[in-house]
Every structure is written in structure tokens, then in C-alpha cells.
Design goal:
mainly alpha, Arc Repressor Mutant
Length: 94
């Protein structure tokens, strides 16, 4: 699945933060670096909530979907969403 495109302002903020981290950690000891990383906030991007849909599938297709998803170690609904997203991106580019 492709990554969501970040808005330009978010990219700029991340670049500025990277420069700040480089300056801060340039002459720091490994212990100081570990302490700074431990206290840093994680970057989180907000996503719009997902919308549930109903689709009627052939029982054999559903069975195969479940088998493939189990082999990949993900829920079958996530596999369906992943494949749908990949196909939509492919169609959008063409």
C-alpha cells in the first residue's frame, strides 16, 4: 500500500525538526542521545475514519481470501482493503 502524501507544511515542519535534532545531537554522548530519543514525541498523522461497506462475495472467493490473508498474517478484511486500494491507485495512474 502506498503511503499517504503529506501536506507541504507538514513536510516543512518535519525538515525543520530534523535540522533541530541534528544540531542538538551533533556533539551529544550516546547516553544523552538515548535520553532525547526517549523523551521525543511520536509523529502521528490523522486519518479520516474508515467507512464500513457490505459486499456480496462468492463463498469460494471468500474462502480463498481468508486463506491468503491467514498465510500473510493479516485479517481478510484488511487484505480486501489493501487490494482495493492498490487497484484504485493503479487505475488512477493509468
Amino acid at each position: 500500500m502506498s503511503r499517504p502524501k503529506l501536506p507541504d507544511r507538514v513536510l516543512q515542519e518535519l525538515k525543520e525538526e530534523a535540522v533541530e535534532w541534528d544540531a542538538l545531537l551533533q556533539n551529544a554522548s550516546p547516553d544523552e542521545v538515548a535520553a532525547e530519543i526517549e523523551s521525543a514525541e511520536l509523529f502521528q498523522m490523522k486519518r479520516s475514519p474508515r467507512q464500513p461497506v457490505s459486499v456480496r462475495l462468492d463463498p469460494r472467493d471468500l474462502s480463498m481470501l481468508k486463506r491468503i490473508a491467514r498465510h500473510k498474517g493479516i485479517p481478510y478484511s484488511q487484505l480486501i482493503a489493501l487490494w482495493l486500494h492498490e487497484r484504485i491507485e493503479q487505475e488512477r495512474v493509468e
